[in-house]
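User: I'm preparing a small set of examples for a lab meeting where we compare how different chains pack in three dimensions. I only have the primary sequence for this one, and I'd like the structure in C-alpha coordinate form so I can line it up with the others. Please keep the answer compact; I'll paste it straight into my notes.
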Amino acid sequence: MATNNDLVLNVGSITGLGMREINGDDVNPYARPGTIAIIVDAFGPRILKYCRNVNGSAITMGELHAYAAGAANVRTTSVANITSGTTTSAVTTGLTANRHDGMICYVLDNNDSAGAAPEGEASIVADNTTTAITLEADYPYSVALAANDDLMLVSNYQVEDAAAGDEAWTVAGVALGRYGVANLNYGWYQVEGIVNADATAATITSGDPVSAGAVAVAAFGTDGHELWIGTALAGMTSDSTAATALVNLKLFAPENSGGTP
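Assistant: Understood. Below is the C-alpha coordinate output for the 261-residue chain.
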Protein backbone atom coordinates (compact mmCIF):
# COMPACT_ATOMS: atom_id res chain seq x y z
CA MET A 1 0.00 0.00 0.00
CA ALA A 2 0.99 3.63 -0.25
CA THR A 3 1.87 6.03 2.59
CA ASN A 4 -1.69 6.34 3.93
CA ASN A 5 -3.50 3.68 5.95
CA ASP A 6 -6.33 2.93 3.51
CA LEU A 7 -6.69 0.13 0.95
CA VAL A 8 -9.37 2.05 -1.01
CA LEU A 9 -9.46 5.47 -2.68
CA ASN A 10 -12.34 7.76 -3.72
CA VAL A 11 -15.24 5.46 -2.78
CA GLY A 12 -18.30 5.18 -5.07
CA SER A 13 -21.53 3.17 -4.88
CA ILE A 14 -23.31 0.49 -6.89
CA THR A 15 -26.25 1.99 -8.75
CA GLY A 16 -28.88 1.43 -11.45
CA LEU A 17 -29.33 3.31 -14.73
CA GLY A 18 -31.61 3.84 -17.74
CA MET A 19 -31.45 3.36 -21.52
CA ARG A 20 -29.99 6.81 -22.12
CA GLU A 21 -26.96 5.91 -20.02
CA ILE A 22 -26.67 2.36 -21.41
CA ASN A 23 -26.50 3.73 -24.97
CA GLY A 24 -23.95 6.37 -24.02
CA ASP A 25 -20.65 6.90 -25.81
CA ASP A 26 -19.05 9.29 -23.37
CA VAL A 27 -15.96 11.40 -24.08
CA ASN A 28 -15.92 12.40 -20.42
CA PRO A 29 -17.21 9.90 -17.86
CA TYR A 30 -20.53 10.88 -16.31
CA ALA A 31 -20.05 8.24 -13.61
CA ARG A 32 -17.00 6.91 -11.83
CA PRO A 33 -15.16 4.59 -14.26
CA GLY A 34 -15.44 1.00 -13.10
CA THR A 35 -18.87 1.59 -11.54
CA ILE A 36 -21.10 -1.49 -11.34
CA ALA A 37 -24.83 -1.17 -12.11
CA ILE A 38 -27.48 -3.82 -11.47
CA ILE A 39 -30.54 -3.64 -13.71
CA VAL A 40 -33.44 -5.85 -14.74
CA ASP A 41 -35.21 -5.80 -18.11
CA ALA A 42 -37.28 -8.15 -20.26
CA PHE A 43 -34.31 -10.52 -20.52
CA GLY A 44 -33.87 -10.71 -16.74
CA PRO A 45 -31.33 -9.33 -14.27
CA ARG A 46 -28.02 -8.02 -15.61
CA ILE A 47 -24.83 -6.69 -14.07
CA LEU A 48 -23.07 -3.93 -16.04
CA LYS A 49 -19.70 -2.22 -15.68
CA TYR A 50 -18.73 1.27 -16.85
CA CYS A 51 -15.49 0.82 -18.81
CA ARG A 52 -13.15 2.77 -21.08
CA ASN A 53 -12.35 1.63 -24.61
CA VAL A 54 -8.55 1.74 -25.09
CA ASN A 55 -8.57 -0.59 -28.09
CA GLY A 56 -7.18 2.03 -30.47
CA SER A 57 -10.36 1.97 -32.58
CA ALA A 58 -14.12 2.20 -32.11
CA ILE A 59 -16.09 -0.82 -30.93
CA THR A 60 -19.68 -1.80 -31.73
CA MET A 61 -22.68 -3.12 -29.82
CA GLY A 62 -22.53 -6.83 -29.08
CA GLU A 63 -18.75 -7.21 -29.29
CA LEU A 64 -16.83 -9.09 -26.60
CA HIS A 65 -13.93 -7.35 -24.90
CA ALA A 66 -11.11 -8.22 -22.53
CA TYR A 67 -9.22 -6.14 -20.01
CA ALA A 68 -6.39 -4.23 -21.67
CA ALA A 69 -3.00 -5.86 -21.20
CA GLY A 70 0.46 -6.15 -22.70
CA ALA A 71 0.22 -9.90 -23.35
CA ALA A 72 -2.29 -12.74 -23.55
CA ASN A 73 -4.01 -14.05 -20.40
CA VAL A 74 -2.86 -11.32 -18.06
CA ARG A 75 -4.39 -8.04 -16.95
CA THR A 76 -1.03 -6.29 -16.73
CA THR A 77 1.39 -4.28 -18.82
CA SER A 78 5.05 -4.54 -17.80
CA VAL A 79 7.12 -1.37 -17.47
CA ALA A 80 10.68 -2.56 -16.94
CA ASN A 81 13.71 -0.49 -16.00
CA ILE A 82 12.16 2.95 -15.72
CA THR A 83 14.50 5.87 -16.35
CA SER A 84 13.62 7.83 -13.21
CA GLY A 85 10.77 8.55 -10.86
CA THR A 86 9.32 10.24 -7.79
CA THR A 87 6.67 9.21 -5.28
CA THR A 88 3.99 10.19 -7.83
CA SER A 89 5.59 9.72 -11.27
CA ALA A 90 7.77 7.57 -13.50
CA VAL A 91 9.68 8.21 -16.72
CA THR A 92 9.94 5.37 -19.23
CA THR A 93 9.45 4.64 -22.97
CA GLY A 94 7.13 2.72 -25.25
CA LEU A 95 3.75 3.51 -23.73
CA THR A 96 0.57 4.37 -25.64
CA ALA A 97 -0.68 7.79 -24.55
CA ASN A 98 -3.78 7.68 -22.31
CA ARG A 99 -4.13 3.90 -22.60
CA HIS A 100 -3.22 3.34 -18.95
CA ASP A 101 -5.17 6.17 -17.31
CA GLY A 102 -6.84 4.84 -14.17
CA MET A 103 -4.86 1.60 -14.03
CA ILE A 104 -3.24 0.35 -10.84
CA CYS A 105 0.51 0.98 -10.84
CA TYR A 106 2.17 -1.77 -8.78
CA VAL A 107 5.89 -1.65 -7.95
CA LEU A 108 7.15 -5.10 -8.86
CA ASP A 109 10.84 -4.57 -8.12
CA ASN A 110 12.98 -1.97 -6.38
CA ASN A 111 16.26 -2.23 -8.25
CA ASP A 112 18.65 -0.64 -5.76
CA SER A 113 17.53 -2.55 -2.65
CA ALA A 114 15.61 -5.80 -3.10
CA GLY A 115 12.43 -5.94 -1.04
CA ALA A 116 12.69 -2.36 0.22
CA ALA A 117 10.00 0.29 -0.28
CA PRO A 118 8.36 1.15 -2.57
CA GLU A 119 8.49 -2.49 -3.76
CA GLY A 120 5.06 -4.06 -3.28
CA GLU A 121 3.25 -0.71 -3.07
CA ALA A 122 0.43 0.32 -5.41
CA SER A 123 -0.91 3.64 -6.66
CA ILE A 124 -3.29 4.77 -9.43
CA VAL A 125 -2.31 6.22 -12.82
CA ALA A 126 -3.78 9.72 -13.17
CA ASP A 127 -2.63 9.96 -16.80
CA ASN A 128 0.14 8.79 -19.08
CA THR A 129 2.00 9.93 -22.18
CA THR A 130 4.25 7.77 -24.34
CA THR A 131 7.12 8.35 -21.91
CA ALA A 132 5.66 9.47 -18.57
CA ILE A 133 3.31 8.06 -15.93
CA THR A 134 1.69 10.51 -13.53
CA LEU A 135 0.17 8.99 -10.41
CA GLU A 136 -2.65 10.26 -8.20
CA ALA A 137 -1.15 12.94 -5.96
CA ASP A 138 -3.32 11.80 -3.03
CA TYR A 139 -1.95 8.24 -3.19
CA PRO A 140 1.86 8.50 -3.36
CA TYR A 141 4.42 5.78 -2.74
CA SER A 142 6.22 5.94 0.59
CA VAL A 143 9.59 6.22 -1.19
CA ALA A 144 10.44 7.70 -4.59
CA LEU A 145 10.84 5.43 -7.60
CA ALA A 146 14.30 5.32 -9.13
CA ALA A 147 16.12 4.24 -12.26
CA ASN A 148 15.68 0.56 -13.23
CA ASP A 149 12.73 -0.07 -10.93
CA ASP A 150 10.09 -2.34 -12.53
CA LEU A 151 6.36 -1.55 -12.57
CA MET A 152 3.21 -3.45 -13.49
CA LEU A 153 0.18 -1.54 -14.80
CA VAL A 154 -2.96 -3.50 -13.90
CA SER A 155 -6.20 -2.87 -15.79
CA ASN A 156 -9.39 -2.48 -13.79
CA TYR A 157 -11.87 -0.90 -16.26
CA GLN A 158 -9.82 -0.41 -19.46
CA VAL A 159 -10.88 -2.77 -22.27
CA GLU A 160 -9.80 -3.89 -25.73
CA ASP A 161 -10.85 -6.55 -28.27
CA ALA A 162 -11.15 -10.07 -26.88
CA ALA A 163 -9.21 -12.85 -28.59
CA ALA A 164 -9.56 -16.61 -28.90
CA GLY A 165 -7.94 -18.28 -25.92
CA ASP A 166 -8.59 -15.45 -23.45
CA GLU A 167 -9.06 -16.92 -19.98
CA ALA A 168 -12.31 -15.91 -18.28
CA TRP A 169 -10.64 -13.88 -15.53
CA THR A 170 -9.23 -11.56 -18.22
CA VAL A 171 -12.52 -11.09 -20.14
CA ALA A 172 -14.46 -7.87 -19.36
CA GLY A 173 -17.82 -8.36 -21.08
CA VAL A 174 -20.08 -7.42 -23.99
CA ALA A 175 -20.56 -3.83 -25.21
CA LEU A 176 -24.20 -2.78 -24.80
CA GLY A 177 -24.44 0.72 -26.29
CA ARG A 178 -26.44 1.00 -29.52
CA TYR A 179 -23.92 3.42 -31.01
CA GLY A 180 -20.80 1.61 -29.88
CA VAL A 181 -17.95 3.27 -28.02
CA ALA A 182 -15.29 5.40 -29.72
CA ASN A 183 -11.63 4.96 -28.84
CA LEU A 184 -10.84 6.37 -25.38
CA ASN A 185 -14.55 6.92 -24.68
CA TYR A 186 -16.57 5.34 -21.88
CA GLY A 187 -19.55 3.01 -22.12
CA TRP A 188 -21.42 0.16 -20.43
CA TYR A 189 -20.40 -3.49 -20.74
CA GLN A 190 -22.44 -6.45 -19.55
CA VAL A 191 -20.55 -8.83 -17.30
CA GLU A 192 -23.37 -11.02 -15.99
CA GLY A 193 -26.77 -12.23 -17.19
CA ILE A 194 -28.49 -12.95 -20.50
CA VAL A 195 -27.35 -11.12 -23.64
CA ASN A 196 -27.49 -11.72 -27.38
CA ALA A 197 -23.79 -11.32 -28.13
CA ASP A 198 -21.78 -11.38 -31.33
CA ALA A 199 -20.60 -14.92 -32.07
CA THR A 200 -18.00 -16.56 -34.27
CA ALA A 201 -19.17 -18.49 -37.34
CA ALA A 202 -19.26 -21.90 -35.70
CA THR A 203 -22.02 -24.09 -34.32
CA ILE A 204 -22.81 -23.46 -30.68
CA THR A 205 -24.89 -26.04 -28.81
CA SER A 206 -27.57 -25.10 -26.30
CA GLY A 207 -26.44 -25.81 -22.75
CA ASP A 208 -22.74 -25.88 -23.60
CA PRO A 209 -20.21 -23.45 -22.17
CA VAL A 210 -19.02 -20.60 -24.38
CA SER A 211 -15.52 -19.14 -24.55
CA ALA A 212 -13.94 -16.01 -25.94
CA GLY A 213 -13.33 -15.76 -29.68
CA ALA A 214 -12.10 -12.83 -31.78
CA VAL A 215 -14.26 -9.97 -30.40
CA ALA A 216 -17.09 -12.50 -30.00
CA VAL A 217 -18.29 -15.49 -28.01
CA ALA A 218 -17.37 -18.90 -29.40
CA ALA A 219 -18.08 -22.60 -28.94
CA PHE A 220 -15.93 -24.00 -26.15
CA GLY A 221 -14.74 -27.01 -28.20
CA THR A 222 -12.10 -28.62 -26.00
CA ASP A 223 -11.43 -25.46 -23.93
CA GLY A 224 -10.85 -26.07 -20.24
CA HIS A 225 -13.08 -24.47 -17.61
CA GLU A 226 -10.65 -21.59 -17.14
CA LEU A 227 -11.79 -20.27 -20.57
CA TRP A 228 -15.54 -20.59 -20.00
CA ILE A 229 -17.26 -17.20 -19.86
CA GLY A 230 -20.89 -18.35 -19.74
CA THR A 231 -23.48 -20.79 -21.05
CA ALA A 232 -25.33 -20.95 -24.38
CA LEU A 233 -29.07 -20.70 -23.74
CA ALA A 234 -29.98 -21.57 -27.33
CA GLY A 235 -28.11 -23.23 -30.18
CA MET A 236 -26.52 -21.35 -33.07
CA THR A 237 -25.63 -22.91 -36.42
CA SER A 238 -22.54 -22.02 -38.41
CA ASP A 239 -24.67 -20.67 -41.29
CA SER A 240 -26.42 -18.08 -39.10
CA THR A 241 -26.57 -14.74 -40.94
CA ALA A 242 -26.82 -12.73 -37.74
CA ALA A 243 -23.86 -14.54 -36.09
CA THR A 244 -25.17 -13.87 -32.61
CA ALA A 245 -25.63 -16.22 -29.70
CA LEU A 246 -27.97 -15.98 -26.72
CA VAL A 247 -25.75 -16.60 -23.72
CA ASN A 248 -25.84 -16.26 -19.96
CA LEU A 249 -22.59 -14.45 -19.18
CA LYS A 250 -20.77 -15.38 -15.96
CA LEU A 251 -18.01 -12.79 -15.69
CA PHE A 252 -18.92 -10.94 -12.49
CA ALA A 253 -17.69 -13.96 -10.55
CA PRO A 254 -16.23 -16.39 -13.12
CA GLU A 255 -16.62 -20.12 -12.47
CA ASN A 256 -12.86 -20.34 -12.32
CA SER A 257 -10.55 -18.30 -10.14
CA GLY A 258 -7.50 -18.06 -12.37
CA GLY A 259 -5.55 -19.40 -15.33
CA THR A 260 -4.78 -22.82 -16.75
CA PRO A 261 -4.61 -25.49 -14.01
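A couple of notes for your slides: Residues 173 and 191 are 5 Å apart (CA to CA). The chain has one helix and 17 strands.

User: Perfect, thanks.
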